[in-house]
Amino acid sequence: MTGPRLPLLIFGVVFAAALVLAALGYLSLRRWEQAAERQLREQARDAAVMAAEKVEMAVVRAEQDGIADIQAAALDPAFGPEAVEAWRSRHPLFDAVYLCGRDGRVLYPVGWSPEDGLVIAALRAEISQGFWDRGGRRHLDVGGRVVLATVLQGSPRGPLLVGLRRDDRALGRDVLDRALAATEGRSALVVVDASGRSVWASRPLESAAPVLTVPFGEALPAWRVALYEPAGLAPRDMVRRQAMTFMAAFALLLGLIGTGLVATYRLQRRESEIARLKSDFVANVSHDLKTPLSLIRMFAETLEMDRVPDEVRRREYYAVLTRESERLTRLIDNVLDFSRIESGRQRYDIAPGAVEPVVHEVLESFRHPLHQQGFAVDVSIAPDLPDVPLDPEALKQALANLLDNAMKYSADRRKIAVTARREGDGVALEVADEGIGIPMSERERIFEKFYRIGRSETQGRRGSGVGLALVKHIVEAHGGRVTVDGAPGAGSRFTLHLPGA
Ligand code: ADP
Asked: How many CB atoms lie within 10 A of CB 225?
């Protein structure tokens, strides 16, 4: 399989595998979350039940103390309202006391309000004959308040029914604080009363989330203990965080794999392109070598056979021989230099020198082909050119390549301008033609080795594709750079910027 399909396929497979992994990871995270949730609930239930039991025990103990105390007081023949008042001050957990005789007389409070009346009525209604005889203890709900009822035996006044109304605020203050003070751990315990109001909390709730509630026993009917987990510590939040981390890691991994594949694909494409360019290069160079060789051979044979009687013609033939052998030399020099550059063996002999003689020499060697192909050459060399560090042979080769291209890529308008001008303390050397020009998008690539613009092939212009790579290498070895401008169809202008010393 070739082209972009293979990397796409690989990416698809990797993506699918990553998706499967992600799905498996998600499932196991879900399972973990459920197990953790279950465990958390169990622990929370244990903690809440334990807290409820502690509170219940504390309440029952306080109630027992209160009852034992009032029972003891009731044995005294002088038991009366004063003794009850004294008892109340010792047991702040209860905010109201009711005492009734078996005959229904209310012994305490002495004067009672309508609210007290309600409690007394409830006490009488709830307490059966059996309760008077058997005794015992009951919690009654009267108007949302808990009233503890019991029968005191052994008083000189006969059995007394006592109702003790619990003070919820005192309960929170005295009992809950003491019973639950030692609660530890990250969860928060909250005691909620019958109306859903929170009476006591082990710590500020802030953004904690409720996990569960458990009821108290008989001593605190309709009250509940609620357990809260701090935000972010619930298994769901932890799973969400884990899933986010996994997802980010997956995305990163996929990104890396994708980038790797794209890079591999590019590299592979570039390599196959270089391989194609190389084989084109071999074909083009062979062709370029053959053309001057066959011309040389043809003209040499004609001369050898003495078939050219006319002296002018003969001179022309000799000139062709010289020109073609020069072309051959240039071509071979290009290939040899290029191979030296490729293997890193190319050396330049750079020393301060004048640019002008180089320009003249190159133009001279091109005089004949330029003239023969009908080119008008406009040469302009500034008089004040400074000497610059240069390797004359290398610079000649660069200029020759530019001139060769200018001729090759000119169509009908056969005009070439060669300009050398001062640029700072250096020299700018330009070769401009009015030929086919170079599209903007190709202006970087033409300096790459073997690179030729597709059209050069189709328009029948042969070449090896290393000329400009060589020009670039040469000018850079001089510490300068080469630039190109112009517009497609309106010609191109190559400039060698040679810095001064
Ligand atoms: P080639 O041997 O193909 O001329 P070069 O490296 O000298 O190789 O040039 C690379 C490509 O740049 C050429 O194939 C051609 O497409 C383009 N090119 C170079 N010089 C010119 C020019 N003066 N006008 C238009 N195109 C040019």
From this structure: 26
Question: Residues with Cβ < 8 Å from 441, sequence gap 6 or more?
Answer: none
3-state secondary structure of 128: coil
Is the CB of 453 inside a 6 Å radius of any atom of ligand 1?
Answer: yes
Q: What is the DSSP letter of 300?
A: H
123 phi/psi in degrees, rounded to 5: -60, -45
Q: What is the pLDDT of residue 4?
A: 62
| Gap between the Cα atoms of 322 and 328, Å rounded | 10
Residue bearing the bigger pLDDT, 135 or 150: 150
Helix (H, G, I), strand (E, B) or coil at 207: coil
| SS3 label, residue 412 | coil
Amino acid at 52: A
Q: Is 436 in the pocket of ligand 1 (CB under 6 A)?
A: yes
Q: Is the CB of 432 under 6 A from ligand 1?
A: no
* Minimum-distance ligand 1 atom for the alpha carbon of 433: 23
Number of helices and strands in the chain (H, E): 12, 16
460 band by pLDDT with thresholds 50, 70 and 90: low
Pocket test for ligand 1, best of 277, 403, 409, 495 (most atoms within 8 A of CB): 409
Confirm or reject: Cβ of 395 under 6 Å from ligand 1: no
> What is the CA(387)–ligand 1 centre distance, in A?
29
Residue closest via CA to ligand 1's atom 12 equals 446
- Find tokens 């997956």 and name the residue: 250
pLDDT at 57 over 80: yes
Cβ-contact 293, 321 below 8 angstroms: no
Distance from the alpha carbon of residue 362 to the mean position of ligand 1, in angstroms: 19
pLDDT digits (tens, 9 = 90+) for 17-41: 878 888 888 888 889 888 888 888 8
What's the mean pLDDT in 206-233? Answer: 83
| DSSP characters over 101-115 | ETTS-EEESSS--HH
